[in-house]
Specification:
298 residues, alpha+beta, 8 strands, two-stranded antiparallel sheet, binds zinc ion, six-stranded mixed sheet, 4 helices
Amino acid sequence: MGDRGHWSRCVLEASAGLGDAEAVLAHELALDNATFRLVAARPAWTRYLLFDLRYTAISDEKRDGVLRLMLNLATGALPDAALERITPWLNDAGADAVPPDDAVLPADWERTRVLDVLRPAVPPRLAAALAPFERGLRRRLARDQDRLHAYHNDLYREAMRRAATATEGDPAHQREQLRIAAIGREYRAKLDDLGHKYALRVTLEWIRTLELVMPVVRLELLVRRRKAERVVWLDWNRLARRPEPPVCEDNVAPERPRLACDDAVHLVSAGGLAACTGCGKAYCRACHRAGCPKCGRV
Ligand SMILES: [Zn+2]
Ligand SMILES: [Zn+2]
């Protein structure tokens, strides 16, 4: 990524302060089973990578659009909500700006590290972007299935009625039996055709990466879960005027709230602490990436 000229850089200035940080933090963090304390809040700078991916969804209709993801290189956060607020500010104005000399910027990430984040981050966000299209598709499919069923049901009933009036062994009776079987075959074949017609194929293509350099307030939090505690850094985006929720350490899921695990205080979405499908024991997917520690089920 970043070759062929599809890379640009933008520096944005903003100076909004924190306000009532702890109240807003409690809401944004949405920690369901842990407490936190704000230890420090310091002015800082960060770099974001904004990835624009064009998606094309083809079924009986076609839909395309651009999915944008924003990755904070200092904290690893993917602040979807902050991205929405910042987008109107992204213009050419920041292209020539430079951050102050004393700004300490986070280093580049290895390409594989970026891809390890994007790979699980894209599918749920793409699904959300395509949800209205998919709902419409399901509605049209259900409508066509209903029509198909009603039509073949009428044919079937008519053939059954005629078969019932003919005596068994009569050629008319046999003819109707063959008709009934043919109607069933045709119905199943037409259902298959509908399945193909409404199958959804989605392709995704990277179109550009924007590097965004911005001032933030770096928040140091102490997150406590039972006897364990851990320091977590989050950025408060000065332009979006909100803190960036911690990334789900299991699979970068956008859903909230976050739950903390007992052993390492990983912050994960609900699925990251779900019960094992094999033995029913709840375990942290970030602690045990290879599978359930009790029964081994992945
Ligand atoms: Zn298990
Ligand atoms: Zn854990």
